[in-house]
Amino acid sequence: MAQQEWDCRLVVKAHFGLVAEGTFPVGTERRYDVLGKTVNIAARLEAGAGVALSAEAFRRLGLEARRRFKKHTPPITYIRAEDSHRRGARE
C-alpha cells in the first residue's frame, strides 16, 4: 500500500487463549463472531500501527519468528522490530 501511496493504518493484535465462536443473534439477524476475555485482551494491546502480540502469543512463536519482534512496555507486548513504539506514530 505504501508503494501505491495509499494511506493505511493496518493494525494486527494477537493474544492466545480460549474464545467462544459461532453465529450469534444481532437484532433480527445473525452474524459470526468471537467472544471472550481473550478477544478483549487482544483488543486492548497497544499498537499505533503494525503488529502487536501479547506475551502469551509471543511465547507460541518459534525462535526465528521471535527475532522479528522487540519487547514494548508497559504492559508487556511485543511489536515488530521495524514498527514504531509510539501510539499513532507514522513513518
Can you walk me through this structure?
The protein has helices at 37-44, 55-59, 63-66, and strands at residues 11-14, 20-26, 29-35, 50-54, 69-72, 77-80. The chain is α+β, with helices and mostly antiparallel strands. It has one domain. The strands form two sheets. The chain has a four-stranded mixed β-sheet with strand order 1-4-6-5. Strands 2-3 form a two-stranded antiparallel ribbon.
Task: Describe what is shown at a glance.
The chain is an alpha+beta fold. The chain has helices at residues 37-44, 55-59, 63-66, and strands at residues 11-14, 20-26, 29-35, 50-54, 69-72, 77-80. The protein has one domain (13-80).
Radius of gyration: 16 Å
Give helix % range: 10-25%
Tell me the strand percentage band: 25-35%
Secondary structure: number of strands: 6
Give the CA-based shape. Answer: globular
SS field, number of helical segments:
3
Mean pLDDT: 84
* Alpha-carbon distance between the two ends: 13 Å
Give the topology string: H per helix, E per strand.
EEEHEHHEE
Strand-pairing-aware structural class:
alpha+beta
- What's the number of structural domains? 1
The major pleated sheet works out as: 4 strands, mixed
Biggest sheet, spatial arrangement of strands: 1-4-6-5
Low-confidence stretches: none
